[in-house]
Amino acid sequence: MNRFARMWDSDIAWSFRHSPVAIVATVVALIIILAAVLAPWIAPYNPFDSRSLNLMDGFTPPNVPNQFTGNTYLMGTDNQGRDIFSTILYGARISLFVGFAAVVFAMVLGIGLGLLAGWRGGWVDSLLMRIADVQLSFPSILIALLIFGVARGFIPPSMREEVAIWVLIVSIGLSDWVQYARVVRGAAMVEKSKEYVQAARVIGVHPARIVLRHILPNVMGPVLVIATIGLALAIIAEATLSFLGVGVPPTQPSLGTLIRIGQQYLFSGEWWILLFPSIALLLLALSVNLLGDWLRDALNPRLR
Amino acid sequence: MLAYIIRRIAQSVLVMLVVALVSFALFRFVGDPINSMVGQEATIADRELLRDQLGLNDPFLSQFATFVVRAAQGNFGISYRLQQPVMELILSRLPATLELALVSGILAFVFGVGFGVYTALRRNGWLSNTIMTVSLIGVSLPTFLIGVLLIWIFAVELQWLPSFGRGDVVNVGGWPTGLLTPSGRASLVLPAITLGLYQMTLIMRLVRAEMLEVLRTDYIKFARARGLSNRAVNFGHALKNTMVPVITITGLQLGSIIAFAIITETVFQWPGVGALFINSVRFVDVPVMAAYLMLIALVFVIINLIVDLLYYAVDPRLRVDRAATRH
Question: What's the rounded mean pLDDT across residues A179-208?
């Protein structure tokens, strides 16, 4: 049996094939991710190239020819004549980049500290878990906001714009590492006392090797679930901070920034500037969320 | 018992000290306070004199101690941006935030419990399914998007409700309230729904899950066998037993409501503490940031402390657990 057939026959693939919600969510998420990654090639216009912008094109409603230039845009244009569809593609790119980077950061940090706490035990464990307890009692969006605010204070004003995106990634990542650390710690403590680990210890395998090659693969299941749901949360956190005007700099608009811009034109009747970025964000967050829910149920042995 | 309380309080104090250290570091290392106080023509000797007078040359620890003492007295200095004492600013905006948080908390609790009970009792009704689906979208939708969409529907298209500000307020014993004027109440509706929606879905899902669990137990079957009315079984027996975890979670969510108020206040330009904080982050107004940091930490620490102590008092199993598995 080749590798693909084995995968197709596995429990998880079976559960996937029998869950319409998971299939639809995957398709939607993949379309958005592909569109975002391929934005420079599929976007009809480059919204960051000021030469291609024509102010006369500003406020063109969706799919209606502009009254001055006659140009038609699928989702209309904003105040500066930027094609909304293109800005969404580029915005989703930034949202997804921040989301993925924040999840990877939180995951590496959480897994590392979780393994350390679970393997070492003792005061290292108590200290880390106390910190985790305290952090868990605050909502993560508040933690991200506070870390972002504090970090911004420490960065010299001239550098704030260019490093903003990295500060954002670190803030969102730091606000979410606890989830991983707790799960990994618990699993590592269980695995630690199992016979295969004791056997490895007896034959003199280096502890770092036991942790990374033997324990880590066995705790990856739940980590994957947390990471998927964490991606949805990170995307929402980024959008929220950008909407509040403290996230990505205005020169790199993410979906949250676009929604903030759209809100300003709501009262003058240009609803499309708000509506399309909102739908994009909703579809992205909802599909990743549903995927995470399905994965959690599929990997949960009690629900099989 | 006493040892646990002391340990728990010591932990809270430690958390506050760490937060104070972060706030203090903000003051100490963001920009040079002397530069923002003296003019261009001040000589280096003048600057050094002022530095000495302000105690900026003191050892780190004694400066930190001074900071903690002043913070405990509510003295956070003067806002860089608004040129007013920070504590005055925060106190003048606190009523708006508390009023909003209180109203949306009550909304979330009442509707959350109501919908939760309904969806648990009518598991497969079309209305239950609709409520559950909508709640899933409600959880996935970011708070700010809910606010913006509500503004669009109810303020822009239908023009039923105002979209920003607090409306008229009247002063009741030094507390400016918007609850007593028609425009104040109208202004409160959309922000309260925005802020309460997420908590409502959370409470609803919790109540539903707990109710389903309890309805399966033997004593409910027995109560039905005794011929008690549905009403007595559902509300007198089932709901009553689901309320302990629900009330705990709701209590813990109070802090979240205050945190999410930052977002809601920004969307609706609500003149509360959260909007003040966002602006202080945007303009790096350190005194306001530091004060808010301490204030929000204090709120959370107190809520968690109360919930933990109540739990400890209510649930005797915890006492045994803690002694046995001290982790």
Answer: 86
B175-177 and B170-172 strand pairing: antiparallel
Distance of CA A143 to the CA centre of its chain: 16
Each residue of B255-276: b (16+ CB within 10 Å) or e? bbbbbbbbbbbbbbebbbbbbb
Distance, in Å, from the CA atom of B93 to the CA atom of B277, rounded to the nearest integer, reads: 11
Task: Please name the residues in contact with B310: beta carbons below 8 A apart, sequence gap of 6 or more.
Answer: B248
- Write the DSSP symbol of residue B78: B
ipTM: 0.79
Report phi then psi at A83, rounded to 5. Answer: -70, 120
Coil, helix or strand at residue A293: helix
pTM: 0.82
In whole angstroms, how far apart are CA B184 and each of B189, B190, B271, B319? 9, 11, 12, 47
Entry field: residues in chain A: 304
Residues of chain B with C-beta less than 8 angstroms from the C-beta of A154: 26, 29-30
pLDDT value at position B121?
83
DSSP-assigned letter for residue B27: H
Can you tell me which residue has the tokens 């395998």? A205
**Inter-chain touch B296–A236, beta carbons under 8 Å:** no
CB contacts of A267 in chain B (<8 Å) are: 156
What distance, in Å, lies between the first and last C-alpha atoms of chain A?
25
Lowest mean pLDDT among A38-52, A76-90, A155-169, B74-88: A38-52
Helix/strand/coil for A46 = coil
Calpha distance A227→A240 (Å, rounded): 19
Q: Between chain A and chain B, how many beta carbons pairs sit less than 8 Å apart?
A: 103
Task: Give yes or no for residue B40 having a pLDDT over 70.
Answer: no
Cα–Cα distances in angstroms (integers) from residue A169 to residues A38, A160, A284, B28, in the given order: 22, 14, 18, 25
- Looking at residue A102, what is its pLDDT? 94
Query: Do B104 and B265 contact (CB within 8 A), yes or no?
Result: no
DSSP state of A55: G
- Both tokens assigned to B186: 């109208």
CA B272 distance to own-chain centroid: 12
CB B180 within 8 A of CB B172: yes
Interface test with A, best of B28, B145, B151, B311 (most A CBs within 10 A): B145
Which of B171, B161, B148, B158 has the alpha carbon at shortest distance from B263?
Answer: B148
CB burial class (10 A; 0-12, 13-18, 19+) of residue B94?
middle
